[in-house]
Design a protein that fits this description.
Length: 70
């Protein structure tokens, strides 16, 4: 091999090693983000749509289900 190929392989190995090390190094700057939320549940307005009598294979049954959910 000539010197040009060897220098290109060394440079590629060096750059690849730097990329791997930068991707795997831990982040020390910020603590993890914690997101909390509240689940709102109102049994007065909750309904279970019945779809046993609908034929969901055709578009008319799908439209009726969408209207009942909406």
């Amino acid at each position: 091999m000539d010197a040009r190929k060897i220098s290109c392989m060394v440079a590629a190995t060096f750059v690849g090693t730097l990329l791997i090390l930068s991707a795997t190094s831990p982040v020390h700057s910020q603590p993890p983000v914690l997101v909390q939320g509240r689940h709102y549940f109102d049994p007065e307005i909750q309904r279970v749509p019945r779809f046993a009598d609908l034929d969901l294979a055709n578009s008319e049954g799908q439209k009726r289900l969408t209207r009942s959910v909406g």
